[in-house]
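Protein Entry — a single chain follows
Fields — amino acid sequence, structure tokens
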Amino acid sequence: MLQTEFDWDDFLMPYKQAVEELSLKFTLLRDEYISRGEYSPIHYISKRVKSVNSIMEKMHTKGFSYDEIAYKMADICGVRLVTQFEEDIELLVKLIATRSDMKILETKDYFKSPKPSGYKSVHLIIEYDVNTIRGVESIIGEIQLRTLAMDFWATIEHSLNYKYKDDMPHELKDRLVAAAETVHALDHEMGTIRDEIADAQRLFTRKSEVINAIIESLNTLGKQGKKDAVKKYFKNFSEFKDSDNTLQLVLMSKEIEREIEEYNENESKEKEY
């Protein structure tokens, strides 16, 4: 098939749809953890679909034909799940394996067998069904799982490989390998205090939610014309928001909510009469 006959927009459309759906699903998964007050193994999510130039370069390197790329090129589209700790990656792999909306075809574990560059990650090659106007289309995509530290390292390595076109000076390669070892040591050390960090983040998230609720409630009181009450609560709020007394903030939030409810109930009774 000639390049001029190949409709790239049509070919890439289901891949673009797939990364949008996958990104949304993993975002909702992360939000579910947070809404339940639990630690989320997903820190952040990124997505991408290869450019036509990148696909054609790989086709040339691997010797793929246009008819082969859909099933021989597994990384046309991908979603990256970045975690805070290595332990989170193992948890996410198990979780993804239990899902009915995607199927793991292959697992590439670069933690067990790191690349010579020092790169560590887990790549899941998945099959994912996309509902299009032509019906269901099964595409092959990739889910990458990395820690924050390794994602930073990999971003730098990718930029350097792009600059040197895979002909990086040996000295620079050696320094990257040494940097990767430092990253792995950092990941390991942070993993030893994972539970402490997770607890601290849960407390911080809970406190932030309560503070936002109080600010919103104070605005509501102000709209109700209860200026004296706003001043009273704001004074107490200023004293507690920078302290570790989250319980006091929770009690204050509930007290303000009750005052707002009483106002609304009185307004409803007056309208009835």
In short: The two ends are 80 Å apart (CA to CA).
